[in-house]
Specification:
Layout: H1 2-23, E1 26-33, H2 42-57, E2 65-72, H3 78-90, E3 96-98, H4 103-108, H5 110-116, E4 120-122, E5 137-139, H6 144-157, E6 162-168, H7 171-186, E7 190-197, H8 204-213, E8 218-222, H9 227-238, E9 247-251, H10 260-263, E10 271-274, H11 283-296, H12 304-321, H13 330-337, E11 341-342, E12 349-351, E13 358-370, E14 373-385
Parallel strand pairs: 1-2, 1-3, 3-4, 4-5, 6-7, 6-8, 8-9, 9-10
Antiparallel strand pairs: 10-13, 11-12, 12-13, 13-14
Helix pairs in contact: 2-12, 6-7, 12-13
Amino acid sequence: MKKQLFHIAALMATALFSHATWAQETIKIGVLQSYSGPSAYQGPTADKTIELFQKLYGSEPGGKKVEFVRRDTTGPNPDVAKRLANELIVREKVRIMIGPEYTPNTLAMASLATEAKIPSIVAGATQGIVGEKSPYYFRTFFTIPQVSRPMAQWAHKNGVKKVVVMVADFAPGHDAESSFSKTFTDLGGTVTSTIRVPLRSPEFSSYMQRIKDAKADAVFVFLPLGELCVQFLKAYSDSGLATSGLKLLGTADITDESHLDATGDTAVGAITSGVYAPALDNPANKKLVEEYERAFGKKDRLNLVNAMIWDSLQVVYAGLEAQRGAPFNPDKFVATLRGRKFDSPRGPFTLDKDNGDIIQNVYIRRVERRNGVLQNVTVETFRDVPTK
């Protein structure tokens, strides 16, 4: 009997010791974002979001300490992103990654994430195939077809008959061109011409003339977040197109709050489709806006990147919380999150049970000046839109 009691006591002590060990486990999380280059604001924006999230929800989800290790992708550079991802996995021993933020970067590191079993929360890539490239990928951004189709449907329903399409000349831009054009023409609309512009240092003034020559009712624009959007809107204004009666349509990138103030009233009246805006009216978003302004003030405006990183952290924390009292297991982490529903500042979203992609609301927004501030104001909501 004494032997049996001693054996039980030993087992209990071992279990308690093991639990304590698991509780102290440190999970390194790699953050792949642009801290320099054309989208340099994204890295510091991600850092502020992480700081605020941990202030509100702590730094030990599931009893595990989390430590963030950052790397600068410098923009759409797949070779750089792959090298940095490998460095994070091999040298830094990260167990989870957030990012990277461009489709070419995300595709380049897919094999590394798969081989090393690194769950990766993709908070920036927009091409439709991302979720299928690794069983360890989840997306908290959006796909181009997901936001382009509703834009085409809204445009046709609201009397637009002819559109000229202008996109950045890389895979997501080609996605935007094809998905918008097919939806719009299937509804009976006409695409008068398509224009592709380079990602680096385009001369926008010549493209403005091509838009004028297209003789359309509207221009549909997709450009990645960052300097290109500001450059386009300046050229659009300087060319006289902003006051010509031509409707400006696009994805949310071109009027994102990260640069909206810099564009001035050129953007007023622009209609865009997106998955987040600080003006969204729901409790989770009101709380985020309030807490962000309290922490960082109103000058540094909350924007799409904040929301995407915020939800990436929600996903990470939920996956780790599900493994409380046990060592980190990447396959269980993935299994826990597939099909999971979240309440978010963007509204409700679901991680697809088959490929980890995101099902979410898409909002049609109009830029308006309210209380002296430019805002993306929702005019219509498309609910539970799939990525394809």
